[in-house]
């Protein structure tokens, strides 16, 4: 075992990255001066408390009470930071994902969420100060308070000026280093660019915009090339019009009537489709909506999209945008893709797992269907590699124009890039006349947090701002109307700040961006074939990504890119290019899909980059242990059923298990809720910080209420999620119920949509047990549970838990002897219950748990855990645990 563990360490590898991560995410330590301030504050508060005791709270003046509360809050900020420092010294927690915010009760809480930072609470100032690390400014305000108390009452209503403190600005290098060879502009070129810019401003209508795109000049040549070559690689800078225009050109050239634009009726008399894949859901929907506008129809009409759990196509649809994962599913029902005359694999440089598999399948298809046309489109990178892979397919280069972008690095590493990004936004806003800002962050959490910070700060600075700042977040879970905001033309006298993940790196092009702020990180799936452990981690992005991000500032004019890391980091800590997903992720899902497509010899499949044999074997092993493959490696009936379900093999296995255990209804609910589990509660409990949760009503206690139920003790997060779903359903899916319980209605509504679709599929596959009466509205599970006796209900709960144990036995962990952490059963890796879990600090802790996912922040945290019995594990996976004894 000892030996195993060492091995593992070498394999999981990026210890260095982890160290960097810790370094970057670390909160700043308390300075000596702050420590003194802390002592002083503590003393003052004691005095205060003595007064309060003597005079009574009610007899204190309004001001005094206010001051007391503020001082208390500052102290708690100090306290928290010194705790962090202690933890750091112990080698433990620095929390990148968690952050602080003031909840509705005006208390410091962990994890900031967008909608709790509103309100005109003056105390917010201190929080904002914290945001910018402006401790002296905070103290200035404090002394202001003291003055106020001494002076006349007139000032009571005065709010404080919040000043953007230049001294606290983030220091960047001078931008001496310019981006490209084209950085040194001659006067002629400058004039030309100016002309182009004016020209671009002139074109306003859609038709003009279409004609103004770089691909337009090559329209006819492109169509000719597609007709001539079965496979064509199209390379062009982001924003040149590949995604929105090429499918339209092919449609206009008659590719819907037949392959190669010749009229041929399809067997069923339908028209042919022109397909285009996207690695991301947001891109598929946004582009479909844009192209619908350009074509002049509604989404789902002539132009449609298809993403998991959301299909917006109809019989009329000829241009179809879809995620690469969806096309992979279509391959299963129609291996010839006979509906399509041409397929464009877009953003191929992203090298997602699904894209890589598709390339292999399409390569084969294109040799079997000579009239079928394949376009591989990519932003400049890696085009030679694609060409070589497709037997030297020709590369069509769409020359793009790009203005120079000056790059600015920070002088020192930034302790917290969210804070630094916020500060930088205002630095730009106050120092530059025009140009929108694009900020690259790693995920929805960060985007929401930063959006809230920006809005709150704007409110404070409103008096000083010449122009308004419009904050536009974008991520997949945002409602579509709000996603569209990022594309709106910025009104005169305003500036737009778009907060995005690497979706805006190449997939989406936003016009008018002149400034890019790049945090330098990306959220990635990491998987170790040796341990079989997969986890999500925030890691430094690649230099190629960073350059791509920078380039977004130079589309409509010369731009600036602010990198929230040092030039040294760029040179030394970032990899040159990103690792293709296929080389770093768990392959069991695609292996199952490939098996069901009849591709059994995976070791010899023609991959663009072959995954390691170990990773493939691990995937096969996992599928075997789930019962999807037999000893000979052949797909079983169970495996075939699992492949039909649009979820991870482990979840698919749970669904099948639930079918034989007569609890499909409930398991469908839990699975739908698991997807949203991070966004259900509008706030987070601060149990991590060791505070007493009962002192914090609202979201925290609501979460607490659900998490401390008897159900939670029995069935951990899974049954807790079920309970929340059931109550939501019994209360008629009411937004009011959500508000009353501090639950995010939007997240619940998304879960409801997913549930409807999954339930429909399960009905189609006959997964519902005889006892189960499934109704469309989803309230059924509640009704079912309510009509049961307590005993029956408990038995049902156990069956639900068993279903999950059946799918997730590989994610089992055993309580360590000391009782403060768990060890994975298979490799004895230490893992911890995530503070958001119902099982966090449960007494006594369950001996065995299974977890839904691992999340790497300061430690490996298990998210969404459920207690299981050792017996189940032995029963479901004897072969799996045999070796570990
Ligand atoms: P590429 O795929 O080559 O990166 P696109 O076809 O995505 O380029 O974009 C071409 C242009 O179309 C962009 O520069 C932008 O002006 C416009 N555009 C794309 N998507 C949208 C949208 N959803 N809303 C408004 N304009 C868009
Ligand atoms: Mg594109």
Description:
The structure is a single chain. The protein is α/β, with parallel strands linked by helices. Helix content is 45%, strand content 14%. The protein contains 33 helices and 23 strands. The protein has an eight-stranded mixed sheet with strand order 6-5-7-4-8-9-3-10, sandwiched between helices. Strands 11-18-15-12-14-13 form a six-stranded parallel sheet, with helices on both faces. Strands 19-20-21-23-22 form a five-stranded mixed β-barrel. Strand 16 (521-528) and strand 17 form a beta hairpin. Helix 3 (32-55) packs across helix 4. The radius of gyration is 29 Å and the shape is globular. The N and C termini lie close together (11 Å). The model is unreliable at 1-28, 87-161, 176-182 and 683-697 (pLDDT under 50). Magnesium ion is lined by residues 242-243, 346, 507.
Question: Strands, helices and their partners?
Answer:
Layout: H1 2-12, H2 15-25, H3 32-55, H4 62-89, E1 100-102, E2 108-110, H5 124-132, H6 135-150, H7 187-202, H8 206-212, H9 219-228, E3 231-236, H10 242-252, E4 273-278, H11 281-295, E5 303-307, E6 310-312, E7 319-323, H12 324-333, E8 340-345, H13 353-368, E9 373-378, H14 383-389, E10 395-398, E11 405-409, H15 417-431, E12 436-440, H16 444-461, E13 468-473, H17 480-484, E14 494-500, H18 503-506, E15 513-518, E16 521-528, E17 533-540, H19 543-551, E18 559-563, H20 567-572, H21 588-596, H22 613-625, H23 637-644, H24 649-660, H25 664-676, H26 699-707, H27 710-730, H28 735-740, H29 745-764, H30 780-786, H31 790-808, E19 812-815, E20 822-824, E21 830-833, E22 848-856, E23 860-867, H32 870-876, H33 878-881
Parallel strand pairs: 3-9, 3-10, 4-7, 4-8, 5-7, 8-9, 11-18, 12-14, 12-15, 13-14, 15-18, 17-22, 21-23
Antiparallel strand pairs: 1-2, 5-6, 16-17, 19-20, 19-22, 20-21, 22-23
The chain binds adenosine-5'-diphosphate (ADP) and magnesium ion.
